[in-house]
Specification:
The structure holds two protein chains of two kinds.
Chain A lengths: L1 H28 L8 H40 L6 H39 L2 H7 L4 H38 L5 H11 L2 H27 L4 H35 L3
Chain B lengths: L20 H4 L5 E9 L4 E10 L4 E5 L6 H8 L7 E6 L2 E2 L5 H9 L1 E4 L11 H5 L1 H5 L4 H14 L15 H13 L5 E5 L7 H18 L3 E4 L3 H9 E4 L4 E4 L9 E7 L2 E6 L1 H6 L3 H7 L1
Parallel strand pairs in B: 3-8, 3-11, 6-7, 7-8
Antiparallel strand pairs in B: 1-2, 1-4, 4-5, 9-10, 11-12
The chains are: A mainly alpha, B alpha/beta.
């Protein structure tokens, strides 16, 4: 009995991975064939990019502040409290900026995509769209994926910037250190490989957020309860995948960039 | 229509070589041949075979959950069968790719059970959905939407959102959306389900108007016998602007019945045949 359950679950997982791979492949390939829905792309850029700006700025600012608070006491034990700026900028740009932005945007947008598309499935709007001769993959999924990828890049840059500002705020007004020194160490520590690393990660996170959100939305079954289930799955899987992808990318990018 | 003679097993005359009728034999709008489908369980439809002629209206009867909506979705390729063949406008669609199906679907109109209107779009944008995707100019779209809304007598709803419409109004907007491009086949999925008798009659009158005015072939799913019999025993009088009964004892020859029981097609025939049938299930359903 237990073996049967394990067998069934394993097959289900393999099937889901296969379906997701085919889904993601179709969504990407649609970009290279007409029709392309540029208006929908711009609308999604507004919803994902502009709509997520406030949460990304706030989380970035306070994360930078917390980093400065936590690091200052440890660094001062080694007489290196002047390196707070370096610590904050490197951590934000390499790691926390991309990951935090990804997780925040995932919570907001993967859930909204899954619930929106899920509701369209249960009310037969997706079938109606297909019956009217419009491909939901092209009209709904591809614009969301590419809007999310492009917007996450800019949101990550904003999160990095506001994280460094948050660190500066704590350093100057709470730790009473020199602001100029904070910014000069933050600037001097940065190398191109750090920036490349910080800007490659959001491209993958953006793809994961939108593709997982749309994938679970379009697989919705079981009415309104099913919509809730899809929403939860979309947020959980996209958040976990962002962190797993971050780990793998860090490993790959560190080995690639160390050769430069 | 093209089945072998049951007595002799011979091919129908129209199919014999050199027969003049072979050249004028019209292609059915829809032809199902031994179609079966299942979803993680027992078959929903089994060995279903029927055709819809070029000006024919088929009324699909059957209790809830018998596979009527599935059959309708199979007709325009929204679902694909496990076995059998489905021909839409003469083209085999049972194994056709989604991309190849789009041009065929555009030639059909479908009215879903609950309307399936896009709730974030206005009535105008819902009805004109296909035209907007084809970048038709706005003034042309507005004119055609007004025309479609006049057909369903809802011209005042042009700029409203579906959320502010009643159930009956939503169905009528869905009918307008299905008919705006003058489809070559219309599929109605329980268009009167859950509506009051007066609104149901209005909807059936619209279906009849489309049947008698444009002669469009259609499949109408319903479990309301009253609607089915009204369609058979009335015609739309375009001069009077409403439906009128046919002379007593007459029925529309192009409106015929199909009946499903547990996924199998158990009846295919006219009004006179269905009321005289010996099939126990059909008789119980009619009572």
């Amino acid at each position: 009995m237990a073996i049967d359950t394990i067998d069934k679950t394993a097959k289900q997982i393999v099937l889901t991975v296969q379906d997701y791979s085919l889904f993601a492949h179709r969504a990407v390939m649609n970009l290279f064939r007409p029709p392309r829905y540029w208006v929908d792309f711009l609308i999604q850029c507004d919803i994902i990019g502009v709509g997520s700006t406030s949460i990304v700025l706030l989380s970035g600012f306070f994360t930078g502040g917390v980093l400065a608070l936590q690091s200052a006491s440890t660094l001062s034990e080694f007489g290196a409290s002047n390196l707070t700026g370096r610590f904050v900028s490197l951590t934000m740009i390499r790691e926390l900026g991309p990951v935090l932005t990804g997780v925040m945007v995932s919570g907001r947008n993967a859930s909204s995509m899954a619930s929106e598309l899920g509701s369209m499935i249960v009310t037969e709007q997706i079938d109606a769209m297909r019956a009217l001769g419009v491909d939901p993959m092209r009209k709904l999924v591809t614009p969301r994926i590419f809007a999310c990828v492009s917007m996450l890049l800019f949101l990550t840059i904003l999160a990095d910037f506001f994280g460094i500002l948050g660190g500066a705020f704590v350093t100057v007004f709470m730790n009473h250190q020199d602001g100029l020194q904070y910014f000069s160490t933050a600037w001097e520590a940065l190398r191109y490989p750090d920036i490349v690393q910080g800007l490659v990660k959001p491209l993958f996170s953006g793809f994961i957020i939108a593709s997982v959100g749309c994938f679970y939305g379009l697989r919705t079954t079981g009415g309104t309860e099913g919509v809730g289930r899809s929403t939860i799955q979309a947020v959980v899987f996209s958040s976990v995948l962002i962190i797993v992808a971050d780990f793998l990318l860090t490993q790959i990018l560190l080995s690639l960039l160390s050769r430069l | 229509m093209t089945a072998p003679d049951p007595a002799t097993g011979a091919a129908p005359a129209s199919k014999l070589p050199g027969h003049a009728a072979a050249a004028v034999e019209p292609t059915p709008a829809v032809a199902f041949q031994n179609v079966s489908i299942a979803f993680d369980g027992p078959p929903v439809l089994q060995d279903v075979t029927f055709t819809v002629g070029p000006t024919e209206t088929r009324i699909l009867l059957g209790p809830a959950g018998v596979g009527k909506s599935v059959l309708l979705k199979l007709t325009n390729g929204l679902l694909q069968p496990d076995h059998g063949s489905i021909r839409l406008f003469g083209e085999e669609i049972s194994r056709m790719s989604e991309e190849a199906l789009f041009p065929l679907r555009v030639r059909t109109g479908i009215v879903f059970q609950e309307g399936a209107l896009f709730d974030s779009l206005t009535v105008r944008d819902n009805i004109a959905y296909q035209l907007i995707q084809q970048n038709v100019p706005d003034d042309v779209i507005d004119a055609r939407v007004h025309e479609a809304l006049r057909f369903v007598e809802l011209d005042q709803t042009f700029s409203l959102f579906p959320g502010s419409l009643s159930g009956g109004m939503k169905r009528r907007v869905a009918i307008a959306r299905a008919l705006i491009r003058q489809p070559e086949l219309v599929l109605y999925d329980s268009p009167t389900g859950g509506l009051d008798p007066i609104t149901s009659t209005t909807i059936i009158e619209l279906v009849m108007k489309q049947r008698d005015f444009y002669r469009t072939p259609s499949i109408l799913v319903t479990h309301r016998l009253q609607d089915a019999f009204t369609l058979c025993t009335h015609r739309f009088d375009s001069e009077l602007g409403h439906m009128v009964p046919l002379p007593k004892g007459q029925a529309d020859p192009n409106t015929t019945f199909l009946m499903l029981e547990e996924g199998r097609l158990i009846f295919d025939g006219s009004l006179h045949e269905i009321v005289k049938t010996d099939n126990k299930f059909v008789r119980e359903f009619l009572l």
